[in-house]
Specification:
single chain; 0% strand; 195 residues; globular
């Protein structure tokens, strides 16, 4: 098996490992370096997905690791920026709450019915893109000595709307799947019962 097929997973792990230095740089107001590292992490997200699809370097680990790496990085940066007063606390709470709800739902589904085999929805991908762009603009403004108030306001609004909509979409979709899985489980149990 070629070692190259592990590159996407390696990029995911690298993205997770970038969080501590990014947080440290933000807290110490080293915005130019933070911008470079965060942009690199964001680019690695697109690259690992491209490589996995283009060369068939996919795995169950990678399917779990990719969204996990995104969540860890984005949540960590959101919380840090809220802590140092660069993004509204309420917006960070909304973004973090969505990820916590989705993670708790996925773990509950896994415990009750097995691996969920879920794919990111379109609105979820849009939400991730909006979050990345919003955080990039927030960090880029002091790094480049610019003021992009309009872009921050628009992207912040998009982050809020897409976060709420994608969170509701996940809850509704996976609640329905859980109900269906429960019915199938009960039906299988009934069919396997004593004759």
């Amino acid at each position: 098996m070629s070692v190259l097929r592990f590159i996407p997973n390696g990029l995911c792990i690298a993205r997770i490992l970038l969080l501590p230095p990014v947080v440290w740089l933000l807290v110490h107001e080293r915005f130019a370096l933070t911008l470079g590292m965060f942009a690199l992490a964001a680019a690695s997200d697109g690259l690992d997905g491209f490589l996995a699809k283009r060369f068939g370097w996919t795995s169950q680990l990678g399917k779990a690791l990719d969204p996990l790496a995104d969540k860890i990085l984005l949540v960590g940066v959101f919380v840090t920026l809220a802590f140092i007063g660069m993004v509204p606390t309420w917006l960070a709470v909304v973004a973090v709450a969505r990820d916590l709800i989705i993670t708790a739902g996925a773990l509950s589904y896994y415990a009750l019915y097995g691996y969920p085999h879920g794919q990111p929805t379109v609105i979820s991908k849009v939400n991730t893109l909006c979050q990345v762009l919003f955080l990039l603009v927030i960090i880029a403004a002091p790094a480049l000595g610019r003021s992009w108030d309009t872009a921050v306001t628009v992207l912040g609004a998009l982050v809020f709307v897409t976060t709420v909509v994608s969170g509701l979409d996940y809850v509704i979709t996976w609640s329905r799947k859980a109900v269906q899985a429960s019915r199938e489980q009960r039906s299988a149990s009934y069919d396997a019962g004593p004759r």
